[in-house]
DNA sequence: GCCGTATGTATACCGAGTATGCACCGCCGC
DNA sequence: GCGGCGGTGCATACTCGGTATACATACGGC
């Protein structure tokens, strides 16, 4: 979903080709999410199939150039207007794991929570360090980084909450 | 990933068959995440292929029964011991969208943030209502629900933060 | 008897993501 | 000069998560 709309957004700015789109895509998210080049081509293929982009031929260097279509621009505008809903998101792996852990017998939930919290805390420290160190932060990059920070904090808060609830339940 | 380990966890408790495993899986997460039955069978197939579960034949009613293998139990124990890392998680759709929005020209970031926050707030209210209304809450269910609440709160906090940063940048 | 629903298994299909193959080109060292 | 090496660029094969659907059986109500 995201790579698809990312490519559309980049193509709305100006036409481009696969390899270049990957670089722009990664740069626009502050190189936080590496994108496999193969995925760019398959996504471009699907977008073309669905009439959201079109091949315009080749440029002087022989690159296969794509441009956005009217239909693609509409889809992009819709996407920006639509909020991201809970339903579109994948399952929360951690919540799932803990739900399983408290359901099936023989799992030490306290240890699990403890391990996860230690991990989350070191992740949070690492992210904070990255943020502080950044000399001339790219806006998109720092927004993504801060999203990860807020999420890590929420995870730690939730783990504290879980620990309290589970301990109270057990004793 | 999660369905795979969920099935392993359920099978460690006792052997079972596809349809039953789906019901148990959904119940263990408080019916928060519906699982398509087809996925259960394909996952069981892959688990069998990899030697993590094994068919034991049929029970009295003719159900195809699977049981966990030693190797499967090891993998499950490993999974519970391993923390969930950032890398295993999928891209954050919302962070991605905003990173794109501030990068490509012609997107009204303020409106986007506003729309998303309204949506997140109504989601949060809905989740809170669910939590309060729950008469005899299942532990796993309420943990999952609370995870969603903590995440929605973090999202709203982050959106406030983004708004402040973007406004400051623009004016 | 027959229709609708729940139970149960299995397969086809699609999209996201990864690995890999293949070709071209420019640079650097010998 | 030339042979290796790394960057650029395109394309395909493959796996996995997830959905839809086909198909069969059993059971209960009209």
Automatic annotation (TrEMBL), chains A, B:
Matching entries from InterPro entries are given as: Tscrpt_reg_PadR_C, Tscrpt_reg_PadR_N, WH-like_DNA-bd_sf, WH_DNA-bd_sf
Transcription regulator PadR C-terminal domain segment(s): 91-165
Parts of the chain that traverse the membrane: none
Tell me where on the tree of life, at the top rank, the source sits: Bacteria
User: Transcription regulator PadR N-terminal domain location, by residue?
Assistant: 7-77
What PANTHER family is this protein classified in?
NEGATIVE TRANSCRIPTION REGULATOR PADR, TRANSCRIPTIONAL REGULATOR YQJI
Q: What is this protein called?
A: PadR family transcriptional regulator
Which organism is the protein's source? Actinospica durhamensis
């Amino acid at each position: 979903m995201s790579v698809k709309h990312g490519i559309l957004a980049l193509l709305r700015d100006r036409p481009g080709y696969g390899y270049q789109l990957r670089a722009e895509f990664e740069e626009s998210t502050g190189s936080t999410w590496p994108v496999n080049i193969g995925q760019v081509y398959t996504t471009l293929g699907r977008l073309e199939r669905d009439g959201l982009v079109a091949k315009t031929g080749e440029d002087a260097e022989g690159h296969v150039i794509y441009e956005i279509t009217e239909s693609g621009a509409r889809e992009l505008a819709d996407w920006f207007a639509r909020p991201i809903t809970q339903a579109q998101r994948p399952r929360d792996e951690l919540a799932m794991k803990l739900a399983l852990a408290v359901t099936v017998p023989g799992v030490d939930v306290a240890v699990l929570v403890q391990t996860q919290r230690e991990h989350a805390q070191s992740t949070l420290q690492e992210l904070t360090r990255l943020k502080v160190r950044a000399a001339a932060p790219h806006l998109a990059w720092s927004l993504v980084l801060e999203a990860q920070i807020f999420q890590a904090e929420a995870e730690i808060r939730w783990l504290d909450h879980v620990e309290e609830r589970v301990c109270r339940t057990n004793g």
